[in-house]
Amino acid sequence: MGKTLFDKIWDAHVVNNIPGGPSQLYIDRHYCHEVTSPQAFDGLRQRGLKVFRPEKTFCSPDHNIPTLNQDKPIADPVSRNQVETLTRNATDFGVTLFGLGHPKNGIIHVIGPENGLTLPGYTIVCGDSHTSTHGAFGAVAFGIGTSEVEMVLASQCILQPKPKTMRINVNGKLRPGVTAKDIALYIIAKMTTGGATGYFVEYAGEAIRNLSMEERMTVCNLSIEMGARGGMIAPDETTFAYVEGREYAPKGEEWEKAVAYWRTLPSDPDAKFDREIDFDAADIEPRITFGTNPGMGIGINEPIPSPDPEDEAGKISYEKSLEYMGFKAGQMLEGIPVDYVFLGSCTNGRIEDFRAFADFVKGKKKAPGVTAWLVPGSWGVDKQIREEGLDKILEEAGFEIRQPGCSACLAMNEDKVPAGKLAVSTSNRNFEGRQGPGSRTILAGPLVAAAAAVTGVLTDPRK
Question: Which of 44, 201, 309, 390 has the fewest CB atoms within 10 Å of its CB?
Answer without folding.
Answer: 309
